[in-house]
């Protein structure tokens, strides 16, 4: 089993983040929110470093009466400490965000380095041309009826060519 590691690209927060909406502001840093995916409601606490800009943005949108939903999540911010993005409510983010895995399998080469990731049902994300070719020719055609059988079959095909597959926790 491989441990899922988020590289903070923020893509998931852009694509489904608009489904996390603010129901009510409770204080300068606290909001009551709803996740429209599972209709859950939850309180969030905003990192003070981002509190003012988020509150100002909400106030500006309300004043403009735009009526448009913001597509990326309201709490997605540029990471001020380095590259990538930052969830301004990370410690209180909803279950849907905690559970989300944008890839479900990692593939390692003979040196043990990660050289590919499986996203969605059976799509490969890799810069290894040989692995990409192998995937297209032999793995993508493996029928996906049963997850366990699929994983075993794929792991077997990869191991014959010096790769190993790890399921993400
Ligand atoms: S879970 Fe995946 S898509 Fe979302 S921010 Fe992390 S690496 Fe990016
Ligand atoms: S609450 Fe945080 S982790 Fe969830 S979509 Fe928004 S920014 Fe991303």
Number of helices: 5
N-to-C series of helices and strands: HEEEHEEHEEEHHE
Arithmetic mean pLDDT: 91
Number of domains: 2
Shape: elongated
Q: Span from first to last CA? A: 6 Å
Helix content: 25-40%
Ligand roster = iron/sulfur cluster
Low-confidence stretches: none
Strand content: 15-25%
The SS-based structural class is alpha+beta
Question: What is the topology, as strand order, of the major beta sheet?
Answer: 8-7-6-9
Radius of gyration: 20 Å
Largest sheet: 4 strands, antiparallel
Total strands: the figure is 9
Question: Can you describe this structure?
Answer:
By secondary structure, the chain is an alpha+beta fold. The protein folds into two domains: 11-99, no CATH class; 105-167, no CATH class. It contains five helices and nine strands. The strands form three sheets. Strands 8-7-6-9 form a four-stranded antiparallel sheet, with helices on one face. One iron/sulfur cluster binds at residues 13, 17, 20, 73, 75-76, 87, 89, 93, 97.
Task: Give a quick summary of the entry.
The chain has 169 residues and is an alpha+beta fold. Helix content is 31%, strand content 25%. The chain is elongated, with a radius of gyration of 20 Å.
Highlighted features:
single chain, 169 residues, alpha+beta, four-stranded antiparallel β-sheet, 5 helices, 9 strands, binds iron/sulfur cluster
Write the SSE topology.
Elements: H1 11-15, E1 20-25, E2 30-35, E3 40-45, H2 48-64, E4 76-78, E5 85-87, H3 95-99, E6 105-108, E7 114-119, E8 123-126, H4 129-139, H5 147-160, E9 164-167
Antiparallel strand pairs: 1-2, 2-3, 4-5, 6-7, 6-9, 7-8
């Amino acid at each position: 089993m491989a441990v899922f590691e988020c590289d903070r690209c923020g893509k998931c927060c852009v694509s489904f983040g608009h489904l996390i909406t603010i129901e009510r502001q409770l204080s300068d840093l606290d909001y009551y929110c709803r996740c429209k995916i599972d209709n859950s409601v939850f309180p969030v606490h905003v990192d003070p470093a981002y509190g003012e800009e988020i509150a100002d943005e909400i106030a500006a949108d309300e004043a403009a009466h735009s009526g448009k939903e913001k597509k990326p999540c309201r709490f997605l911010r540029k990471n001020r400490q380095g590259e990538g993005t930052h969830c301004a409510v990370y410690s209180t983010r909803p279950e849907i965000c905690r559970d989300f895995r944008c890839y479900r399998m990692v593939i390692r080469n003979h040196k043990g380095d990660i050289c590919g990731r499986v996203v969605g049902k059976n799509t490969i994300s890799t810069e290894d041309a040989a692995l990409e070719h192998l995937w297209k020719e032999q793995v993508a055609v493996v029928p996906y009826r049963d997850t366990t059988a699929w994983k075993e079959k794929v792991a077997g095909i990869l191991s014959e060519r010096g790769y190993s597959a790890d399921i993400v926790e």
